[in-house]
Each structure stands twice: as C-alpha cells, then as structure tokens.
Design goal:
The complex is a heterodimer of chains A (74) and B (399). Chain A has 74 residues and is an alpha+beta fold. In chain A, a hairpin with a 6-residue loop joins strand 2 and strand 3. Chain A is globular and about 35 Å long. Chain B has 3 domains: 72 residues, Dna Ligase, domain 1, CATH 3.30.1490.20; 125 residues, ATP-grasp fold, B domain (D-amino Acid Aminotransferase, Chain A, domain 1); 159 residues, Succinyl-CoA synthetase domains (Rossmann fold, 3-Layer(aba) Sandwich), CATH 3.40.50. Chain B has 15 helices and 16 strands. Classes of the chains: A alpha+beta (74), B alpha+beta (399). At the A-B interface, loops of A face helix 12 and helix 14 of B. The complex binds iron/sulfur cluster (SF4). The site of iron/sulfur cluster has 14 residues of chain A, from helix 3.
C-alpha cells in the first residue's frame, strides 16, 4: 500500500481518449501505469506508486485524466 | 587491492628486479623440499592479505629443511579472513640493506617515494626514527626521471658503485608503481653473495578502480576477475546488501560493511560516507555498518537497505545522513527509510535518530519528515553536528 503518493485515474476520460492508456504506460519512468483489463483503460501498479518522481508527465499527457496527490501534504 | 607477496615479486621480476632465491610451496612437504634445495636458513612467509593474519604471525624462520616443514605446517593453518593462505613463500634468509616505499601524498596531491637504510616498514621507521627516512615527490603525469631516483639514493648516503646499483632499481620501482595503478609499493632490498640487489620483502596494493585497466597483468598473474581480495570474506549481512544493489539498477547501495555497533548508518554522497562514519566515531558513537547510498536510488532500494540495517542484531536506531546531494533525491530517500521503518512495525520518530540529506527535493523531504515527526536538519547543520546529535540520542561507547 502506497504511503506517500496516490495516483487517481479518471476512467471515463482515459477510455474516451484514443491511445491515452498506452501513452500513460509509456511516459511514466517508474512503471506506475499498466493497461487495464477493459479495452482502452489504465490501472496503477500499487507496489510502484511510492516510486513516483513527481515528473508530471502523466498529467501533461492528460490533465483531466490523471491526478497525482502527495499524501504528505494533506 | 592487495597482491600476495609472491605475485608482487613476479611483478618486480617482470621489470628486472629479482627477488631473493626462493619458491612458492603449496604444502609442508613442498616447503621442506624447497628449503633443502636452498640450503641453510630460510624464511617462510604465509601468502595472506588480512591484517589479522599478519598479526597472528605470517612470517617464520627456519634453520633447516625439517624446521621449515614444521613452520610451513603451522603457517598453512592460519586464518586469512576466512580463507586459507595461498601457499608459503620459502626464501633464502638475507638481511635487508634498505627499504623503499611509494605512495600518494594526499596533502601535496602527488606521488611520493621514501627510502631508509633500515629494513622494514617505512611508516614504522618514520615513526620511530624520522631522521632515517628521506623523501622525494614526483609527477604522476610526466615520465619518471632517473635523476629523481639518483637524488633519493644520494640523500640516503649511498655513493659510488652502491649508488649506481640502486638508482636504476628505484627508477624501475617508480615506473611500475605508476604503470600498474599502485597505491602503495614497499620493497626491502638485500645484497646477494655476488653483491647484486634483490627484493627481500615486497608489499603492493593496486587501486581497485584500476582493475579493468590492468586486466592483462592481472590475468598474467592468474588473478580471477571475481577475486575481490577483501581483507576478509563478506559477512551474510554484506552479501545481502550487495544483492540489494545488484537487483535494482537505480542508484547505488554499497559498498556496505558490517561493524558491531548500535547505530545503523544510511549514509552517502560524494565521500560523505567516510566522513560521516568518522564523525560518528569521533563523537563516541559505534556504527553498526558503513554504507554508501547515492546515485538516486529507488524508494524500494533505500527501503530494502534500511530494513537490512535495522534487522541487524544490536541496531537501536538509524542515522540517515549525507553530504550535499545533487543527483540523489532527498524526498525519495525519506520515503524509502520511513517506509522501511513503518513496515518493520517501528515508529519513524523513534527509530530515525536524525535525517540530514541536504540537496535535491529537500523541501518535499522535510514535509514527509515533519508528517512522521522525524528530526531533520539542512546543510546549515554540519556533518559533524548531525553525527553528534545522532550519537547523543543513541548513546556513546560504554554507556
Ligand atoms: S508524475 Fe511521473 S512518475 Fe509520477 S505517476 Fe506521473 S508519470 Fe509516473
């Protein structure tokens, strides 16, 4: 269970944007995303979430589809 | 990386500096045979590298072949940091006439050669009789000049034929010191019956980073790539730490060396590890380990190393400290150590004595540390002061 970071994925946004799920898997440098079981979706790899480098590449790929939250700021 | 004396002498012989007559024996019977061939008194030297083995008595003398057999039998039982001696060097007993040493002078940042007409370790001679040691610095970049060798020999007081014989030997030693990336070369020379100089004792250390460059000569000496020449075999703790480093390519976690103290050290950054370990000791602390964490390790890697250190019996708390980091993220290190402590069921505020990793992303690191109540400091607190704060929390030697 991640202690420091939470990555929220808006399923509806990702599913409706062609190629976005694949893009998220590609851009994340620490493998936090994987393709979901349903066509066009993405899921997080729980054991990698705390590795997040806060690079923002996922949010740049989809400002509406992904949100990275620093749990230590809440 | 230390050479066994028999290897170091092969290196000298390759450059025209003969060792005293002798051979490497692989067992006691062999030693007896070699001693009998040499005739007269012999010296037997166990081929060991650990300081403990030298202290235990790795050198013996024997008046004849049967004494040599007995001495070899005892020497072969020596514990060389978990290994057995790599044979016994059996040599004619010849008195040393002078000693010559080469190393780097850290203050002058140049190689230096020192010589004495006393036989033995130059360091010891310099401590006991500073007036008996002469020195000359030279360049690691320019070719070595025979003139410098001549100067050293003259300063030693050797004149005429003696000076003519010794000067080229000093010159060759300096050249091979530079050529083979040695960090230390110490040779005692003696005079054979025909008056020629020969190496009685020899000690040579090669810079570990030079191993790749020196592959050819290491192969020639039969030194395997996986022969680390550590002064002792790695402990299970150290083996596990090496696994953590190899299994995750992000960053560096190692070398890790085990000690018997109670302060676990998660430390690193540009020479910081050595400084920090020394600082902890200087303030009376007992480090449980030495570590070098850097190069931007993953959170998992920092966590695995922390867990390993905390699982070592006797470790009461850890101190997470480094020099100023530029390419290692302080926030990722903070995540790693706190994750490890929490997953082991401890409270970060109690188990982490201090966190001082100044540099990249330290603002985020501070937020994490504040959330978990861990004491931290930035670069305005010196390495020494941070080490002192950790020691004050954990306890000094004997407390
Ligand atoms: S911010 Fe970067 S590291 Fe974090 S999830 Fe997004 S892409 Fe991956």
């Amino acid at each position: 269970m991640a202690m420091f970071i939470r990555v929220d994925i808006e399923d509806d946004v990702v599913r409706k944007t062609p190629g976005l799920a694949k893009k998220l898997v590609e851009v994340c440098p620490v493998n936090i995303f994987k393709l979901g079981s349903a066509e066009g979706t993405a899921e997080t790899v729980e054991e990698n979430v705390d590795e997040c480098t806060l690079c923002d590449l996922c949010m740049q790929a989809s400002p509406e589809g992904v949100r990275v939250v620093k749990l230590y700021e809440s | 990386m230390r050479f066994y004396e028999s290897e170091a002498k092969k290196l000298l012989a390759k450059h025209g500096i003969a060792p005293v007559p002798g051979k490497l024996a692989i067992n006691a019977a062999d030693a007896e045979r070699i001693a009998s061939e040499l005739g007269g008194a012999v010296v037997l030297k166990a081929q060991v590298i650990s300081p403990a083995a030298f202290k235990a008595g790795a050198v013996r003398t024997a008046a004849n072949a049967s004494e040599a057999k007995q001495a070899a039998d005892a020497l072969l039982r020596l514990d060389d940091g978990g290994r057995r001696p790599q044979g016994i060097l059996v040599e004619q007993r010849i008195a040393g006439a002078c000693s010559i040493a080469f190393t780097y002078d850290g203050t002058r940042k140049r190689p230096v050669m020192a010589a004495s007409t006393s036989a033995g370790s130059i360091e010891r001679i310099a401590d006991e009789h500073p007036d008996r040691v002469v020195r000359r610095h030279f360049s690691a970049l320019l070719p070595f000049s025979d003139y410098l060798a001549k100067e050293l020999v003259n300063a030693l007081g050797w004149k005429g034929a003696e000076s003519t014989a010794l000067t080229p030997v000093v010159s060759r030693l300096a050249q091979l010191f530079l050529k083979y990336d040695l960090t230390q070369l110490e040779v005692t020379l003696g005079k054979l019956d025909d008056g020629k100089l020969a190496a009685v004792d020899c000690r040579a250390d090669m810079e570990v980073e030079g191993r790749r460059r020196q592959k050819a000569v290491l192969e020639e000496l039969g030194i395997r790539v996986d022969d680390s020449r550590a002064v002792r075999e790695p402990t299970p703790f150290e083996v596990e730490a090496a696994k953590i480093d190899v299994e995750d390519p992000r960053g560096v976690a190692g070398p890790v060396v085990e000690f018997d103290g109670n302060i676990g050290l998660v430390i690193g950054a540009g020479g910081g590890s050595l400084t920090l370990t020394d600082a902890v000791r200087r303030h009376g602390g007992r480090p449980a380990n030495y570590a070098a964490l850097g190069g931007n390790p993953s959170v998992k890697k920092a966590a695995r190393l922390t867990k390993l250190i905390l699982s070592k019996p006797g470790v009461e708390k850890i101190a997470v400290m480094s020099n100023v980091v530029s390419n290692t993220r302080a926030d990722l290190v903070a995540r790693g150590v706190i994750k490890a402590v929490t997953e082991l069921g401890f409270k970060p505020a109690e188990k982490i004595a201090i966190f001082r990793v100044p540099g990249a992303w330290e603002a985020d690191a501070f937020k994490i540390l504040e959330k978990y109540g861990v004491e931290y400091c930035d670069r305005t607190v010196s390495i020494s002061e941070a080490a002192k704060r950790a020691v004050d929390k954990i306890g000094k030697i004997g407390r």
